[in-house]
Amino acid sequence: MALQLSLTGGEEITVREVGLFASDLLQELNDLKQFAAMKLAGTHSGIGFLGSPGWVIGASLVAGAIEAAANRSSANEGLKLLAQAVEKAAALRASVTYFAVEKIVGIAEPDPGLWSAETVLERTYELGQISRWERKEYMRRHAIPDHHQYDAIATVQHRRKYLHDGGEFLKVITNEALIAVRWSSVTRYQVVD
Q: With contact defined as beta carbons under 8 Å apart, do 50 and 56 qualify?
């Protein structure tokens, strides 16, 4: 199975594999960017003052100074979070995982935002040497189901979902090379056997 794509320049490519990203990592990145944006947006106390003009002006200046200090602190935090987001985005781009076209759910639709794939990793955990008190936390941290709490060894399947990152480019492997396709330049899309 493959994708036949026609591009605006008249080029035809046959795609064998598509690059997708771990959904949990995408969510972490999006959460970090949203939190940074909130911090960079600044703060406003919403406090108003009534009374004599002197009191209102003086109190407003004090409130303004407090808000400005809070905004500087918030902006600094926002910039640090933004820098972390840039690093996480670079790490995410490097972590692309390629899936054969036939392994991608929703591939019949020409919308990469609807595509997904999944990996299953089977891991074996040695639980026999862990104290009962530490075992519960260890099992929670490693997503080991509770029915393994009395087992000396637990074998667990971990599933990880992969999605397109929402960007304008799609990394693909063709018969010839690894390339990035600008999705808006695709004029024809066909799934072939």
A: yes
For residue 188, give the 3-state DSSP assignment. strand
Instruction: Specify whether 69 is located in the same domain as 124.
Output: no
Expressed as residue numbers, the domain containing 69 is 2-115+164-192
Q: Same domain, yes or no, for 65 and 93?
A: yes
**Element containing residue 178 per DSSP (H, E):** strand 178-182
Give the pLDDT confidence score for residue 61 in this predicted structure.
54
Closest CA to 72 of 47, 45, 43: 43
DSSP 105: B
Do 158 and 168 lie in a common domain? no
Rounded Cα distance, 59 and 55, in Å: 6
Low-confidence stretches of the chain (pLDDT beneath 50):
44-45, 47-52
Largest interatomic CA distance in the chain: 81
pLDDT of 67: 57
Give which of 176, 163, 168 is closest to 15, Cα–Cα: 176
